[in-house]
Each structure stands twice: as structure tokens, then as C-alpha cells.
Amino acid sequence: ATGTPMLELNNVHTYYGHIHALKGISMTVNQGEIVALIGGNGAGKTTTLRTISGMMKPKSGTLTYMGRNAAGVPAHLIMQQGMSHVPEGRRIFPQLTVRENLEVGAYTVGDRKVIEQRIQEGFQFFPRLKERENQLGGTMSGGEQQMLAIARALMVNPKLLLLDEPSMGLSPLFVEAIFDIIQLLNKERGTTVLLVEQNANMALGIAHRAYVLQTGEIKLSGKASDIAKDESVRKAYLGED
Ligand code: ATP
């Protein structure tokens, strides 16, 4: 972590109609960091990612990505500036093969050679996908689909990767594999990661810093190792009493 802010939210409020989902969120993600965003059901984790990636527009507050205003900037333009969002529930294309899914992920990349090179890089990170290159996405296991969703997001060579609950519904072995890859991406490529997780233990294990979200507000923030030791966090999110 270099301490250079890549993403900054300041007092961000986001609504679904009359539902006030984010009630003044302020947070920073520095270049080179893995930042975890944890919290219970309905806390606003997904909404925070949607607001950052341009899927939703905040009603007020400021959102800055790479030094520029990003509030309400459409998702495809934000993506062109190096941000990639892997949404909850791994929305891969079930009727397309693994390779085709990756090609779709690269639709903003014009150069055929670059696309092929990135597909091969993806296969290096996820050898399991290489073995299944021509298999239909929808026929793969949950863990394999999550790998594909991440590999697809990597096709644009993102500077900032937003991951929404990558461990959801996966067996412990797959959870380990996914978290290993997130760490590898961060260490080897310097990809900055904002990670939303219900699996607080795992997320805090790989993150540098963390924010705890509760009913649309940041309740706690700090070094991930300190958050992991916090009594209230342990009780609420790490299943201790
Ligand atoms: P979970 O871990 O359960 O997915 P979350 O922390 O990601 O929860 P959000 O999905 O961001 O929480 O939801 C925040 C609040 O916004 C909740 O009260 C939720 O009911 C509400 N909300 C989310 N999506 C919508 C929507 N499409 N329409 C209306 N309200 C919504």
C-alpha cells in the first residue's frame, strides 16, 4: 500500500426510491490495498459497490476515483477507467462457453492479440478454467463460475477490482482458492481490491484495512488485524458470543 488514494467516498447517500440505503458513507481505498467491507444482511455493502461502479447514482456526497468525480458516471465509462465490478451471485452467461464469457468481458478491448494474451493470463490464474475452455458456463460448479466471473472481470486489466461476496455458496476449498487468487492478484499485479464479504474471518485475513457497515453507516474502520480483534465485531460477524 502506497497511501495514495485511488477511491474516496465522502458522506455518500444512496436511495432506492424512498429507502435510504447509504446514510453518509465515507471511506478511502488506497492504491495497492485490499480493503474489506463487512457487515450483516442489508447493511448496504452491495449498494456501496453499485454506487462506486456507476450502477447507482448517489443522491448526495462526493465520490472520487483516480482523482476525478465518479458520482453518477455511467458504469461503462467507469470501467474504461480501469474499474471492474464482479457482482453478487456471479452473473456469467450460462449459454456461452468459458472462452466466450472471457471474450465478452473484453468487449471494450479492441486488439485481438491483447484479448488472447489476457485469456491466457486468466488461464494461468485459474488452470481449472483452461481445462474447461469449451464448457458452457451454466454447466460449471458454483466455485468454477465464481472463478470465471473473476477471470472475466480481469479481461480489462483493472486497476481496481470490486468483489461482491466472492465466497458466497462455495465449499471451504473453493473459498481458500478464491482468496488465494485475490491475494496473488494484489501482490503480483498490484491490483487494488475492495472486497465485500459476509465471511468476515476470511476477508479480514487477507485485507490490509477494513470498514464495518451497519444499516447504511460505517460503524468502525481500521487495520484489518485490529478489526478482527474487536470484541463487537467478533460477536456480530465472527460468530462468537
Ligand atoms: P446482503 O449481505 O444481505 O446482500 P448488503 O449489505 O449487500 O446485504 P444491500 O443489498 O446493499 O445490503 O441493501 C441495503 C438496503 O437497501 C437494504 O435495506 C435493502 O433491503 C435495500 N435494497 C437493496 N436493493 C434494493 C432494491 N433493488 N430496491 C429496494 N431496496 C433495496
C-alpha geometry: globular
Taking all Cα atoms into account, the compactness measure Rg is 17 Å
Taking the sheet with the most strands, its summary is: 6 strands, mixed
Helix/sheet category: alpha/beta
| Proportion of residues in β-strands | 25-35%
Task: Tell me the series of helices and strands, N- to C-terminal.
Answer: EEEHEEHEHHHHEHEHEEHH
User: How many alpha or pi helices?
Assistant: 10
Oligomer: single chain
Number of strands: 10
The molecules bound to the chains, other than polymers, are: adenosine-5'-triphosphate
The spatial strand order of the largest sheet comes to 6-7-8-3-9-10
Kindly report the average pLDDT value.
Answer: 92
Low-confidence stretches: none
Distance between the termini: 34 Å
Q: Can you give the helix content as a percent range? A: 25-40%
GO molecular function: ATP binding; ATP hydrolysis activity; branched-chain amino acid transmembrane transporter activity
Domain ABC transporter: 7-240
Keywords: Amino-acid transport, ATP-binding, Nucleotide-binding, Transport
Protein name: Putative Branched-chain amino acid ABC transporter, ATP-binding component
